[in-house]
Automatic annotation (TrEMBL):
Database matches in PANTHER family: LONG-CHAIN-ALCOHOL O-FATTY-ACYLTRANSFERASE 3-RELATED, OS04G0481900 PROTEIN
Transmembrane segments: 34-56, 68-88, 100-122, 269-295, 315-333
Membrane topology: Multi-pass membrane protein
Protein name: Wax synthase domain-containing protein
Family affiliation: Belongs to the wax synthase family.
Region (Disordered): 154-180
């Protein structure tokens, strides 16, 4: 019996040193297995450059020789990041090879942003922000304030709002048969209300801590070498800019907020993320095993992505698999987010322990494609899409239409954001599709079509509102939410088939199904 665990450990060790690509992995031709040194050098060089990026003291930081050294380190770090997915692959995993593409592209773009775009184009070096939380007593917000906040929460109730049971005073009951009947009905209604409240409580979990939050930009910091080392580490690890003036819009919504506790995180994993992961994984595995497995070991050229997805799966299973893949990814991000929040919670009040909600609106409250991508999905790449997609898209629209800087350029903003996302994801999946750009266009189509859907729905919503106002009808009708929910789900599932098609061809679905 003892030999079996030892054999398993030996097989695991051998898999880490085996350079043979796992079945189903088709890396970029002539790429080599990732080495420890190749994986370590890009973030390490980036960190050394960040040590010299923080503002003075000491004053030597602002001298030309140090700036030249800093920029040289940044250029090397950027090249190493961009080179990572082009030269290397992870032979043990299709998913890790895919992630290598995201890491390389994200890291290289982040370096360019931090050391060249922000400092030289916008004269901005990220400053550290400290968050101060004071306990508050929950109270209903004024209607005007709630309406003013709609852009921050998707126009829906706060996902962390927990309403307690209402305790009503005893009321005098009528006498007679009618009174007794109403008394029994009230008793049943009260029991039902109590049961539903308990059910909602078990699903929502422990109450987060209601706080008032104040964010203060630190000046004159970092002071010591240790402070500078902490500044560099925190900025390097903060994808959403938490703890810095780079904070993305989804993180800072209002001073009135809630701090999830460790108990909230555990509850989220056990009650929300884990069940969704298991159910969606079971669906993915079942569909793959029944329909794709028989041809998974055929030659690479034998079946195209359309052969594997469109011709082997009926339409209903295509949509089901697409939904399962989306749910799996959403739950996996939530699981990882909560897990890291639990592990790093002892570091509080350091920004490394601050994990604002990853999703700010629940899926069933979403009514447009725009709200899904703004509030229902994570925004870990928000800064990248802002710098390389939104800002250029707005600039192009203003140039083409002659708009002034203060005028909105929403179409350029949306198209720029989705096109940058399309390129990032296509670049990553190309690394597991033998470097073939044509086969990697599935994810590009998915994001490009969603961008067009956002522009289209915005135009339709504006036209409908104007028409209703002109006719004297209410701006919002009772069926708007039904139409909206049907619309965004249909768009995500139908266009998501492009995403799923590429993931099946690349072998990512096979690895997710453990087959």
């Amino acid at each position: 019996m003892a030999s079996k665990p030892l054999q398993w450990l030996q097989q695991l060790q051998d898999s880490f040193v085996d350079s043979t690509p796992r079945p189903g992995l088709h890396p970029i031709p002539n790429s080599t297995p990732l080495t420890f040194t190749a994986a370590l050098l890009p973030p390490l060089t980036y960190y050394l450059a960040l040590l010299l990026l923080a503002p003075p003291p000491p004053l030597v930081i602002d001298t030309p020789p140090v700036k030249v050294l800093r920029n040289l380190l940044a250029v090397i770090a950027g090249i190493l990041f961009f080179r990572l997915p082009l030269v290397y692959h992870v032979p043990q995993s299709i998913g890790l090879t895919y992630q290598l593409g995201l890491i390389g592209l994200y890291g290289g773009c982040r370096v360019l942003d931090a050391f060249f775009i922000s400092p030289y184009l916008f004269r901005h070096v990220p400053r550290r922000v400290t968050y101060h939380h004071t306990l508050r007593t929950e109270s209903p917000e004024p209607v005007a304030r709630a309406k003013a906040k709609e852009w921050t929460n998707g126009g829906v109730p706060d996902p962390f709002h927990h309403a307690g049971n209402r305790q009503e005073g005893n009321k005098r009951m009528d006498t007679g048969d009618g009174g007794r009947f109403r008394g029994r009905a009230a008793s049943v209604s009260s029991s039902y209300g109590t049961a539903m409240s308990a059910l909602r409580k078990s699903i929502s979990g422990p109450d987060p801590v209601p706080v008032l939050e104040t964010a203060v930009t630190e000046s004159g910091w970092p002071m010591t070498l240790l402070d500078r080392a902490a500044w560099a580490l925190e900025l390097e690890l903060s994808m959403r800019g938490v703890g810095f003036t780079w904070t993305t819009a989804d993180v800072r919504h209002t001073r009135k907020t809630w701090l999830p506790t460790v108990q909230n995180r555990i509850h989220s994993i056990l009650v929300h993320a884990l069940p969704v992961l298991l159910v969606s994984w079971a669906i993915i595995r079942f569909i793959y095993a029944c329909y794709i497995l028989p041809v998974q070991d055929s030659s690479w050229e034998a079946y195209s992505a359309y052969d594997l997805f469109d011709r082997r799966l009926p339409l209903d299973l295509q949509l089901l698999l697409t939904a399962a893949l989306g749910a799996f990814l959403m739950a996996a991000f939530s699981f990882g987010h909560s897990l890291f929040a639990i592990m790093l919670s002892p570091l509080a009040p350091s920004p490394l322990a601050f994990f604002p909600p990853l999703y700010t609106t629940r899926p069933w409250e979403i009514t447009t494609v725009r709200k899904f991508w703004s509030f229902g999905w994570h925004r870990l790449f928000a800064r990248l899409f802002l710098v390389y997609g939104i800002w250029p898209g707005e600039w192009v629209e203003r140039k083409l239409l002659g708009k002034r800087p203060e005028q909105p350029a929403d179409v350029g903003k949306v198209i720029g954001a989705f096109l940058s996302s399309a390129f990032v994801h296509s670049f990553a999946v190309r690394g597991v599709l033998a470097g073939n750009w044509r086969m990697a266009t599935g994810e590009a189509k998915f994001f490009a079509l969603n961008g067009l859907a956002v522009v289209l729905e915005g135009a339709i919503i504006r036209a409908v509102k104007k028409s209703r106002a002109r006719r004297g009808h209410p701006i919002h009708m009772w069926y708007d939410t039904v139409v909206g929910r049907t619309w965004w789900v249909t768009v995500l599932l139908w266009t998501g088939r492009n995403f799923a098609r590429g993931w099946i061809k690349s072998g990512l679905v096979r690895e997710m199904a453990f087959l």
